[in-house]
Structure of Large ribosomal subunit protein uL22c:
Amino acid sequence: MLKKKKTEKKTEVYALGQHISMSADKARRVIDQIRGRSYEETLMILELMPYRACYPIFKLVYSAAANASYNIASNEDNLVISQAEVNRGTNIKKFKPRARGRSYPIKKPTCHITIVMKDISLDDKHVEIDSLKKPRWRNKHTAMAYCDMYSSSSSGGIWDKK
């Protein structure tokens, strides 16, 4: 007897860019800034950042949004980047001729970028946008002490010195 599977409505779409000609570390620097942000905010960030990696990432984000509007009929206002990852690809190897008949190897790194977008209107849980962001590094052991140097206390602060 055949059983019908429950058809769940898909809430995530992705775009994959392979063999992009740049270092994975340089692309990761941009990807860390857009992870967990909304679609419109991501486009503004990518247009204003001065890195060469922004253009292929911009194209992938735009492609993922087009996939979302076509495949799951979602609105661009409800899209959030839920996952963004960069993996190392293959190295393109060439040889450059040098003096005395020698050759010098040229290695150009490539990377694979994956952008996963989620439609928060279709999701049952309604995940808050800020919860998707990666927490920044914080040093819990240092505390800044506030010293009022301008008050007219008996110590006088730095202004009493002659």
In short: The mean pLDDT is 82. Residues 82 and 108 are 30 Å apart (CA to CA).
